[in-house]
Design goal:
The complex is a heterodimer of chains A (about 45) and B (about 675). With about 45 residues, chain A is of the alpha+beta class. Chain A has one domain (about 10-40). Chain A has helices spanning about 30-35, 40; strands at about 10-20, 20-25. Chain A has a two-stranded antiparallel sheet. Chain B folds into 4 domains: about 1-165 and about 270-350 and about 605-665, no CATH class; about 175-260, Distorted Sandwich (Calcium-transporting ATPase, cytoplasmic transduction domain A), CATH 2.70.150; about 360-385 and about 485-595, Rossmann fold (3-Layer(aba) Sandwich), CATH 3.40.50; about 390-480, 3-Layer(aba) Sandwich (Calcium-transporting ATPase, cytoplasmic domain N), CATH 3.40.1110. Chain B is an alpha+beta fold. Chain B starts with a strand and ends in a 9-residue tail after the last helix. Chain B has 23 helices and 26 strands. The chains are: A alpha+beta (about 45), B alpha+beta (about 675). The interface between A and B is medium-sized, with 12 and 22 residues.
Chain lengths: ~45, ~675
């Protein structure tokens, strides 16, 4: 089960982003865009 | 898959039970959770009414069952149990039915299974007393499961009401009736009938019902309930007013701009509520627990029951069927994950309410984990460390004084820029004449211009001063200065005392920054920075492993604030809705920076305590319900275990709620003595 790192909701398989060799899943496109602006913020 | 914001269970987005609030759709596991979400105020009175019925009947069942012996006793118990079982407990069955329909599991399903198993087993014994070796019934367990769990919910709803008091007080600031001007005379109408564009009258002592602009009259207004600032603010023609604030001493006529859900008071209320619906990172643990919980509990309950059934039968114990039923009921009831679902939302609700008391609005509670780790605070200078509104320190006139004063006053009056507002209010004391300016234009970053008597007029902003030109010739100049916010020295000192690195990153010059930085004891500062470069400095600090909070004015610093782990916007009153940032400081008090970090740390600590307690409680008590203590205490414990399970479940939720409530006291501490 993957949690959207931006909002904390459950992520969807079809909306994902790679960072630091790991795949992150998001509940919606807006969260993915927010994540990609500054992944450090959401991955530590 | 969505998460029920009330109980924390996973819900399919195909679910037909949902509510739309502020543009977001929330899904619920049951109608009960939806009702709690939609009408929280009705929940406690409905629960109270049910408990008034549940307790006398449940106590009567218990009393007769244990103390009286007479023929047809089981029939009397059945009759006494019926109202609790099917009227009071109806909400659980409805919730369970909805869960089954959506092929999901929820807490209602577990409670229903527990109580109905005990009830129908007892009913069977009542109808045919010779079916089993003994004719014991368990109506006491079936009704007490319902009564005790509802009592827990009632305590929870009372606590939520108390926790939510800051938010609900805000809404009570709006009057029921408004005086709308129609054809020149005031008509008293319900507040709901007011629309943007209406002209309303607000009399001395009345609360202002909407956001708007004063078009006539003047008065002092107490805005403390919204901005937290104690001193009344003078409002006259052209001033903005905020809904929920109190008109102290003058009659004012207001042109209504925002009403209902769009008004400031309603927006603050929604933000406090939404903060409690957010998901902190730590909730991931409870999410995992909740999503697998119902099937795991059912398997645990079923397999324990089967084990005891065959084990006791093999020993030749005649009570094997009865005990296995009681094992099933106990496990199912004791394992209800109510406390796990409650652990984070109740803490966030209390935290967001307690923060709003001090003028801190937590807009984004998913930033709570990052907030708790902040070790670097970057301040923007202008409008953050210094006051947003500058002060005029010198006024030089190079020609006709009357013309210079009136022209500058009239042209600056047309702009909302803080510098223009400062100049027009400074010149008001010099009795200016209001002159009509044609073709008024505002050039961002430069100043204002217009036409007067066919001549071009321009008030241009330079570094540290403003000049008034008429047809290109300088007529007057003013020197302005941004003074530091009151108490900022102590606020920065308190941050540094708590080992937080403090920096200034500003678009202003070295000359204007170095003095302020050294006065505040800040050694690291960056000047002449563009919005993007401010964000780069945030990223650089983050790359060094630091957790960065950026404190800015919410408009020019948007990029840096979004990049930072936590963005804090300084907002005054009506800017709330537009302000970016995870946190909004309503009263511009920088003491609240340290307080916010403190709130983050203790909120996360409380959530961790609650999640740990709730998971620990479930993990420890499921084996007890399944029978690990039987070798020590004997099979007799199953006569009381179902009731004990219901009591433990109610207590676990209450413990979580009471533990969270302690947060209120902690968060009201004086920041001068706080150690993070």
């Amino acid at each position: 089960m993957a949690t959207d790192p931006v909002c904390g909701m459950k992520g969807k398989k079809e909306i994902s982003s790679e960072y630091g060799g790991k795949t992150y899943y998001f509940c919606r496109e807006a969260c993915k865009e927010e994540f990609e602006k500054n992944p450090v913020k959401y991955t530590r | 898959m969505a998460v029920d914001p009330v109980c924390g269970m996973y819900v399919s987005e195909d679910s037909t039970i949902y509510s739309d609030k502020d543009g977001v759709r929330y899904y619920f596991c049951s109608q009960g959770c939806k009702d709690k979400f939609d009408k929280p105020e009705k929940e406690s009175s409905a629960l109270k009414n049910k408990l008034i019925i549940a307790w006398p009947f449940s106590l009567a069942v218990m009393f007769i069952d244990y103390l009286l012996f007479f023929p047809f006793k089981n029939f009397v118990l059945l009759i006494l149990a019926l109202p609790v079982q099917f009227y009071v407990g109806f909400g659980f069955y409805r919730g369970a039915y909805e869960a089954i329909k959506d092929r999901m599991g929820n807490m209602d399903l577990l409670i229903s299974l527990g109580t109905l198993t005990a009830f129908f087993f007892s009913l069977t014994v009542t109808v045919d007393p010779h079916l089993f070796p003994v004719n014991y019934t368990y109506y006491d367990a079936s009704v007490f499961i319902i009564t005790l769990i509802l009592t827990g919910s009632y305590i929870e709803s009372l606590t939520k009401k108390k926790a939510n008091s800051s938010a609900t007080t805000l809404l009570s600031l709006l009057p029921d009736k408004v005086h709308i001007l129609k054809n020149g005379s005031a008509v008293d109408l319900p507040i709901e009938s007011m629309v943007p564009g209406d002209i309303i009258q607000v009399r001395p002592g009345e609360n202002i019902p909407a956001d708007g602009t004063v078009i006539d009259g003047s008065s002092e207004v107490d805005e403390s309930m919204v901005t937290g600032e104690g001193d009344p603010v003078l409002k006259s023609s052209g001033s903005g007013v905020i809904s929920g604030t109190v008109n102290l001493n003058g009659l004012i006529t207001v042109s209504v701009k925002e009403t209902g859900n769009n008004s400031t008071v309603n927006k603050i209320y929604s933000m406090i509520q939404m903060a409690a619906m957010g998901r902190a990172k730590i909730q991931k643990i409870s999410d995992i627990f909740s999503s697998y919980f119902v099937p795991i509990v059912l398997v645990a309950a079923g397999s324990s029951a089967i084990f005891w059934y065959f084990y006791l039968r093999s020993l030749g114990n005649p009570l094997y069927f009865i005990i296995s039923v009681l094992v099933f009921v106990s496990v199912v009831v004791i394992a209800c994950p109510c406390a796990i679902g409650l652990a984070a939302p109740i803490t966030l609700l209390i935290s967001s309410n307690a923060s709003s008391r001090d003028g801190i609005l937590i807009k984004n509670s998913s930033s709570m984990d990052r907030l708790s780790k902040i070790d670097t605070v970057i301040f923007d200078k202008t409008g953050t460390i210094t006051d947003n509104t500058p002060k005029v320190t010198q006024f030089n006139i190079h020609g006709d004084e009357r013309l210079a004063v009136s022209l500058l006053y009239s042209i600056e009056l047309l702009s909302n820029h803080p510098v223009a507002v400062a100049i027009s209010s400074y010149l008001q004391n010099r009795n200016p004449e209001k002159i009509e300016i044609k073709e008024f234009r505002e050039i961002p970053g430069t100043g204002v211009s217009g036409i007067f008597n066919g001549k071009s007029v321009e008030a241009r902003r330079f570094e540290g001063h403003i000049s008034l030109f008429i047809d290109g010739k300088e007529l007057a100049s003013l020197e302005i200065e941004h003074s530091m916010r009151k108490g900022i020295e102590d606020d920065v000192k308190n941050l540094i005392r708590n080992h937080i690195k403090v920096m200034i990153v500003t678009g202003d010059t070295e000359e204007n920054t170095s003095g302020i930085a050294s006065k505040l004891g800040i050694t690291e500062y960056y000047c002449s920075m563009k919005p993007d470069s401010k964000a780069d400095i945030v990223k650089k600090e983050q790359a060094d492993g630091r957790y960065v909070m950026f404190v800015g004015d919410g408009i020019n610093d948007t990029v840096a604030m979004k990049t930072a782990d936590v963005g804090v916007a300084m907002a005054s009153g009506s800017d709330i809705a537009g302000a970016t940032g995870d946190i909004i400081l309503l009263n511009n008090d920088l003491k609240n920076i340290l307080r916010s970090i403190y709130i983050g740390k203790y909120t996360i600590k409380k959530i961790k305590q609650n999640v740990g307690w709730a998971i620990g409680y479930n993990s420890a008590l499921i084996p007890v319900a399944a029978g690990v203590l039987v070798p020590l205490l004997g099979l007799g414990i199953y006569y009381v275990l179902p009731i004990f399970a219901a009591l433990a479940m109610g207590l676990s939720s209450t413990t979580v709620v009471l533990n969270s409530l302690r947060l209120r006291t902690r968060l009201s501490r004086n920041m001068d003595q706080v150690v993070l």
